[in-house]
Amino acid sequence: MGDFATIFKAYDVRGVVPGELDEEIAEAVGAAFVEVVEATSLVIAHDMRDSSGPLAAAFARGATARGADVINAGLGSTDLLYYASGSLDLPGVMFTASHNPARYNGMKMCRAGAVPIGRETGLTEIRDRAATLLGVPLGRRTGSVTEKNLLAGYAGHLRSLVDLSGSRPLKVVADAGNGMGGLTVPEVFAGLPITLIPLYFELDGDFPNHEANPLQPENLIDLQRAVLAEGADVGLAFDGDADRCWVIDERGASVSPSTITALVAARELAKHPGSTIIHNLITSLGVPEIVREHGGVPVRTRVGHSYIKADMARTGAVFGGEHSAHYYFKDFWFADSGLLAALHVLAALGEQDRPLSEVLSGYARYAASGEINSTVADQAAAITQVRAAYASRDGVTFDELDGLTVTGPDWWFNLRASNTEPLLRLNAEGADAARMAAVRDEVLREVQGI
């Protein structure tokens, strides 16, 4: 199967260009996508990487060769592609490698209505069909390609979902990391009571200033400094395809995505009392506590956007949040949008006079380790050993929804194997920083001693 086995991941296609992913492969995937999804029309968009436009064009050649009409939205963020798929009710493909380095690219696929396509919902079939089409003449183009600018419609839709008309003026520093936030953020914020201070808004797929990955603390340093220097009310950091948003408060402190999940959940429950809120198993224990306190029903799910979106659709949940700063909304076709979450934060801040740190203080209840990766050759053996180490302890429970979660009286941790690397991912939380650190260090000694 060549590179197909390497580049088709659990939720998307991703690989090094041109070594693993090239235009010939993209063309074959375009034809396979149309066949498997049975698409007569579809919409595509791409990020600012040098290879993204050519890959999108090659995909379109494959799709039109199979008779499908292609709407090309051009440059956009991943949540703009979801808007396109939802509002046009068409299957869609986004060409991006998200936060990965410049040499990577990839594809995120969805069915009409922004319904995700993952390994268990069509991606395997697309992979296998594309492998058979690679190098085979696809025939004459019978479908059409139409350019369509959807940026204004996308921005208007986001603004319609969160009311900032009563907000006090806010000073906001946004770091786009030279990614697609540089295009979308000014359009979405246009006309709002916001003074926008841009950092690295120039679209540049080489990421000359820092990686467009807000999960890494070193990539937040420039934003934190700018928030303090400007006396800003809030800082926002976006990843390369701008579907994730990380928040910095007015003190320059990083805000946990679990805290943002709890805040937005409370706001959505105020509009939709008694509704379901989805959270993955790495989010803080404070999230389900706060959901219940606001009359909602928390549902815990596996890590990964395809699981979150499936559970949201199944339960009719109004909102879902992940520890990785992905936020999902029922009124955004159950898809994720970092900018929509940012608008909720700005609305919560702007409707009263307190600083963001005080607004959020009631939503941050526990101390978390963040994700810690350890290189382990035999991940299964390591997880078995860790479970054995805790098996005889009183008051400890286990579950294996996604990896191993061990819960004690005032702490918990989750240990998960990477799908693609020889890594174990540890997340731990405790009632306070000392308790969390003790649990974290104990588990790491077990894992790294193997």
Topology:
Blueprint: H1 4-7, E1 13-16, H2 23-37, E2 41-46, H3 52-65, E3 69-75, H4 78-88, E4 92-95, E5 104-111, E6 115-116, H5 119-133, E7 145-147, H6 151-161, E8 170-175, H7 181-189, E9 194-199, H8 221-230, E10 234-238, E11 245-248, E12 254-255, H9 257-271, E13 276-280, H10 286-293, E14 297-301, H11 305-315, E15 319-321, E16 327-329, E17 335-336, H12 338-350, H13 356-360, E18 367-368, E19 372-375, H14 379-390, E20 397-399, E21 404-407, E22 411-417, E23 423-430, H15 433-448
Parallel strand pairs: 2-3, 2-4, 3-7, 8-9, 8-10, 13-14, 13-15
Antiparallel strand pairs: 1-5, 4-5, 5-6, 10-11, 11-12, 15-16, 16-17, 18-23, 19-23, 20-21, 21-22, 22-23
Helix pairs in contact: 2-3, 2-5, 6-7, 9-10, 9-12
Task: Describe the fold and architecture.
With 450 residues, this protein is α/β, with parallel strands linked by helices. The protein folds into 4 domains: 147 residues, Alpha-D-Glucose-1,6-Bisphosphate, Chain A, domain 3 (3-Layer(aba) Sandwich); 84 residues, Alpha-D-Glucose-1,6-Bisphosphate, Chain A, domain 3; 107 residues, Alpha-D-Glucose-1,6-Bisphosphate, Chain A, domain 3, CATH 3.40.120; 82 residues, TATA-Binding Protein (2-Layer Sandwich). Helices cover 38% and strands 23% of the residues. It is built from 15 helices and 23 strands. Strands 1, 2, 3, 4, 5, 6 and 7 form a 7-stranded mixed sheet that branches. Strand 13, helix 10 and strand 14 form a beta-alpha-beta unit. Helix 2 packs across helix 3, helix 2 crosses helix 5 and helix 6 packs across helix 7. It is globular and about 65 Å long. The mean pLDDT is 95.
